[in-house]
Amino acid sequence: MQKNKQMMWMGIAVLMSLTLLLTVSTEFAAAAGKEAKIGLAFSMTGAAAGYGSTQKNGVQLAVDEINAAAGADGLKLIPIFDDDASTPQQGVNVFNKFINADKVSLIIGPTLSNTAQVSNRIAQQAGVPVLGISNTAKGITEIGDFIFRNSLTEMVVIPNTVKVAKEKLKISKVAVLYGNDDAFTKAGYEAFKIALQGAGITIINEQTFAKGDRDFSPQLTQIKSQNPDAIVVSALVEEASGIVSQARKLDIPKSVPIIGGNGFNSPGLMKNAGDAAEGVIVGAAWNTSSSSSLNRKFVEAYNNKYGSLPDQFAAQAYAGVYIAYQALSKAPSPDNHKAIRDALAQIKGMNTVLGNFSFTDGRDADYIPVVQIVKDGKFAIFGE
Ligand code: 1QQ
After folding, report:
1. Overall domain count for the chain
2. CATH number (domain holding residue 339)
3. 117 C-alpha to center of ligand 1: Å?
4. Is 320 within the bounds of a domain?
5. Do 351 and 296 fall into the same domain?
6. Which of the residues 12, 49, 121, 245 could staple to 273 if both were Cys, CB 3.0 to 4.6 A apart?
7. Is residue 137 part of a domain?
8. 118 & 43 share domain
């Protein structure tokens, strides 16, 4: 009897220590192999669908590299992709889902400034950090202290584009054509206007269009009759392609160059406009040929994985994930949004595929823009 009792107590003791061991080891595993969910809101459909797929590719490549390098003990990323449909309403829906249902650590996106200026207010209110990777309109980071971006604004890129274009092309009078129903195309127009005035270039004609327009011949015919030295365009890539090809069909000669803003930075321009795109000048935040070893490795890895060269939007997406990861790694836990925000704000002089990257005090991007020219169907460096 006595022996049985002894056995029973021993059994209980063994069970208890086993449970303790199990609890301790699972807790340890959770601490060592942490995971952070990141919400990715990109335009896979709608007016900006031309950009979303390369953004998604850039993110996936970076996530795969980071998770492979993290090993068993490191912080892993769980990407949750959703389509913002290029509209503010769908951007809001996706942000709400990321914040309330998925409980993400951080949001990357949305693609358009036009969406960001609405959706980002929700994240700001919830205290969830947002990293824009393609928003270039003014007024985005001003939404609040949880809103960051690694994309250079049109206000930063365009003065440089105008300066280089003036030096190399000797232009003194231009016509301007822009979309008047989108935060980015309007911001691009404003930035061009200020930069052109600053450079002593006269705007002799101004025309507008809206998203989804297909026929630009009325505006281009007017522009042609004024004989500008160049045509300055602020448009998303769908409309940009139509404008470029129709200008050449209307016999506006290639000696009258077309100068575009960020919307032009997609190979969709060359795909849609073909030979008409040759000679188009585009201000950009990145060029394939950037010679840093990090960039060369990125271009090669992207090409190996997807069978095509990355565009600027893929590069900004790829860099965005590394920037986010740096902040996530510094935070004590993936649900500490405030600590993630604070770590983002401290990023300075980080080596990225975009160059030496810092956030300004206003959470905007600080690195060097380039000016490109379309040559043989590719974006080549025109000047810096
Ligand atoms: C913006 C842009 C677009 C061209 C992103 C695709 O710069 O909406 O801010």
Report:
1. 2
2. 3.40.50.2300
3. 12
4. yes
5. yes
6. 245
7. yes
8. yes
Ligand 1 atom nearest residue 115's Cα = 8
- The reply to whether 349 falls in a domain is yes
Distance CA 62, CA 148 (A): 19
Same domain, 279 and 171: yes
Ligand 1 atom with the shortest distance to the CA of 313: 6
User: At residue 1, what is the residue type?
Assistant: M
- pLDDT tens, N- to C-terminus, the chain (384 residues): 455 556 555 555 555 555 544 444 443 433 446 999 999 999 999 999 999 999 999 999 999 999 999 988 899 999 999 999 999 999 999 999 999 999 999 999 999 999 999 999 999 999 999 999 999 999 999 999 999 999 999 999 999 999 999 999 999 999 999 999 999 999 999 999 999 999 999 999 999 999 999 999 999 999 999 999 999 999 999 999 999 999 999 999 999 999 999 999 999 999 999 999 999 999 999 999 888 999 999 999 999 999 999 999 999 999 999 999 999 999 999 999 999 999 999 999 999 999 999 999 999 999 999 999 999 999 999 988
- 41: closest CA among 91, 99, 103? 91
Report residue 131: phi and psi, to 5°: -120, 110
Residue 284 contacts residue 260 (beta carbons within 8 Å): no
Query: What is the whole-number distance in angstroms between the Cα of residue 136 and the centre of ligand 1?
Result: 6
Residue 242 and residue 296 share a domain: no
Regarding whether 102 and 71 lie in a shared domain, the answer is yes
Q: Can you give the pTM of this predicted structure?
A: 0.91
383: Cα within 13 Å, side-chain hemisphere: 14
Its domain, for residue 97, covers 33-152+290-368
Residue of the CA atom closest to atom 8 of ligand 1: 112
Site to probe by mutation for ligand 1, drawn from 44, 84, 112 as the one with most ligand atoms within 8 Å of Cβ, is 112
Question: Given the DSSP bridges, would you call strands 258-260 and 173-179 parallel, antiparallel or unpaired?
Answer: unpaired
Residues in contact with ligand 1 by the CB-under-6-Å rule are: 48, 51, 111-114, 134-137, 184, 236, 262-263
Q: Of the residues 84, 108, 111, 186, which should be mutated to test ligand 1's pocket, given the most ligand atoms within 8 Å of the CB?
A: 111
Gap from CA of 312 to ligand 1 centroid (Å): 11
Distance of CA 29 to the CA centre of its chain: 34
